[in-house]
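[09:14] KT: can someone run the structure on this one? pasting the chain below
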Amino acid sequence: MSEEIKIAVIGGGSTYTPELVDCFIQNYRDVPTEEIYLMDTDREKLSIITGLVQRMVKSRGIPIKINTGTSLEEALKNSMFVILQIRVEGLSARYRDETIPLEFGCIGQETTGAGGFSCALRTIPVILDICKEAEKYCPRAWLINFTNPSGIITEAISKYSSMKVIGLCNIPVFIKKKISEAMDIQEEFIKLNYIGLNHLSWITDIRIRGKGKIKNFTEIKIKLANLPEFPVHQEIIKSTGFLPSPYLKYYYHHDKILKEQLKASKTRAEEVMEIEKELLELYSNPLLSKKPRELEKRGGACYSRAAFSIISSIINNKGEEYTINIPNSNIFTDLPSQAVIETPVRLYKNNYKVSKGKILPLEIKGLIESVKSYETLTVEAAVKSSCKTALMALMAHPLIGQYEKASPLLEAIIKKNNFYLK
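[09:31] RB: done, structure tokens below
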């Protein structure tokens, strides 16, 4: 492996970063990384995170250089992989995304519905500016996008940038882990038929390597449905035959979840603010040289493993299967070619392989098409700064829909976020 492995982490001041770096430390032999460059605009957080990860690397005696700074050019220059994990305007913006929709009787969530919409409008222009710089300083690099809402951001990049991009979410890895525990079978022996979009996905089948279809699949799905991590009624699973991802609760149990959100004493954003404060205090301890257990409360389980495994499969040309966000390109014949979907693919050094020519199951087709229309309109609204397209996006979303709701909701989102739409 002659080419130097440099990983740029844009949003390196995130409290997730120690988990990511830990994965590269633990698996250094598999991916002998020369440099990890942490870039962030928040100097204070970046300084704290950098101190911890440098101590982590030093304590393990691993020769990974940890460089850091606020210069995008320096971060991107000669990078082989660029991990995007930014949150434009920080957690205060997430708080707005979670609370504004509630005023209009809509789900308040950072990636789903109106909250995901406003997050995308805020984020897409910034991401595309980063992509323009990447085209200059590391045109051959892979972009690994964790930035939320991941599917929408990935679609914007794939349509408006020449960079190779993979959208990534921890949910597919998390689901596979839970299935592994429920079946008492190692994850590497499990293969999932995974269909949908980011945060709108279903497991339609489970197969075990060399053993074919699982006979008691229904029993396993019901067992999973009774776990708190899968808050979807088991009758839905019996009816569709599919295991929905946790985010389907916002669609299948909208009114129930909305009532819970309206009654909650704190938003998730406020909880995360408290967790972040606690983590940064821990990270500041000069004696701390490993990721603390408290990081698990931050969410994003399996995040670092997903990112590292994908990078390893590409670098080592393994052709391992991972569920990622990529353009449809005739994978499903009833979706547009440029529509980004979440699907299993085999990853190689210069490309990926995936089966094509499939048809969406009728039980979930309508919801997928509706949300995909919303996502595509949202990308166009952000790129063109179009108020008309933004309104059409909200009206296309099944959790919003009505003009009488979408119009004043959009007005509030624009006003409270200082968005400029023509």
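[09:33] KT: thanks! The longest strand covers residues 200-208.
[09:34] RB: yep, looked fine to me
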